[in-house]
């Protein structure tokens, strides 16, 4: 199968760098095809701006969404954006690997999402009418592909437990897993998270690799998180709130995951 690893860490000799190398090796040994987008090594341009369209004109006001759509539809996107979209279309599974920085992804990876997820590619897909709000949240360009986060965090496991001070890891990662990955169609697997990174010695590193290796071995077998699909009947349209009778009394992120 084809696996794309999107990787964001500035230091090749970091824990993340070692885990990235481990994953590539492990996937290749299992017979997969692997491509990598090493964003710092690529000197990925992290800011979305007018120059992302080859037809950009300094005299014209820049409209981030509409200019993105026109560039995507006319084949006039910046080549680095089109190249990453081609990798996504090639992939059967996509892994996003990064250190948790301020409860989210590093800015360079957010900039990858902002720029690669063009209007017409990742959003604005499908029929938009009073009875349908496009193909998203379970449908869309990337439907049928799998995605998984590999995240390292300085905080402890307990700090990210359901009553932990940082909020549960499911809640912290919800905007990425539900918003960035499920929205354009991916089936999202439970994340692989390494906590308390300041306490990684050789023995723990070996255990982390064993765990990560098992997750990679099951990349195409692990059950995805059961996010509710937008067009599967759980939501009133066009309000897009959960129908009465679906998860009664449950609010917040948790309500959008089926029992
Ligand atoms: P490294 O610092 O490279 O390594 C961590 C440990 O692993 C070290 O002890 C190192 O000796 C060991 N190690 C490295 N490679 C190997 C190897 N090959 N074999 C054995 N051991 C190895 N944390 C949070 O929980 N929440 C946050 O919101 C958050 N925000 C942050 C914001 C910023 C800007 C920064 C800089 C950090 C933040 N952190 C946060 C902490 C951050 O998540 C961790 O520092 C990061 O995940 C560690 O990953 P690393 O690859 O940089 O580890």
UniProtKB/TrEMBL annotation:
SUPFAM superfamilies: Flavoproteins. This is NAD(P)H dehydrogenase (Quinone). GO terms for cellular component: cytosol. Keywords: Oxidoreductase. Belongs to the NAD(P)H dehydrogenase (quinone) family. The lineage of its organism: Bacteria, Pseudomonadati, Pseudomonadota, Gammaproteobacteria, Pseudomonadales. GO terms for molecular function: NAD(P)H dehydrogenase (quinone) activity. InterPro entries: Flavodoxin_fold (IPR003680), Flavoprotein-like_sf (IPR029039), NAD(P)H_dehydrogenase_qn (IPR051545). Residues 1-203 form the Flavodoxin-like fold domain. It comes from Pseudomonas duriflava.
């Amino acid at each position: 199968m084809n696996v794309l690893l999107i990787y964001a860490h500035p230091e090749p000799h970091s824990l993340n760098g070692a885990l990235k190398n481990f994953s590539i090796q492990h996937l290749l040994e299992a017979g997969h095809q692997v491509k990598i987008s090493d964003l710092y090594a690529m000197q990925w341009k992290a800011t979305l701006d007018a120059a992302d369209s080859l037809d950009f004109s300094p005299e014209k006001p820049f409209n981030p969404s509409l200019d993105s759509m026109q560039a995507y539809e006319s084949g006039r996107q910046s080549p680095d954006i089109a190249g990453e979209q081609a990798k996504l279309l090639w992939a059967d599974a996509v892994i996003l690997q990064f250190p948790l920085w301020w409860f989210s992804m590093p800015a360079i990876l957010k900039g990858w999402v902002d720029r690669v997820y063009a209007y017409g590619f990742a959003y604005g897909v499908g029929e938009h009418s009073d009875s349908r709000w496009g193909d998203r949240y379970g449908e869309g360009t990337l439907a049928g592909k799998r995605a998984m986060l590999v995240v390292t965090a300085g905080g402890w496991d307990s700090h990210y437990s359901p009553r932990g001070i940082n909020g549960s890891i499911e809640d912290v990662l919800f905007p990425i897993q539900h918003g960035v990955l499920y929205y354009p169609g991916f089936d999202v697997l439970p994340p692989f998270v390494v906590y308390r990174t300041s306490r990684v010695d050789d023995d723990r590193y070996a255990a982390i690799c064993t765990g990560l290796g098992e997750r990679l071995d099951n990349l195409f077998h692990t059950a995805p998180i059961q996010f509710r699909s937008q067009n599967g009947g759980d939501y009133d349209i066009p309000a897009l709130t959960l129908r009465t009778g679906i998860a009664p009394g449950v609010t917040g992120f948790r309500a959008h995951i089926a029992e």
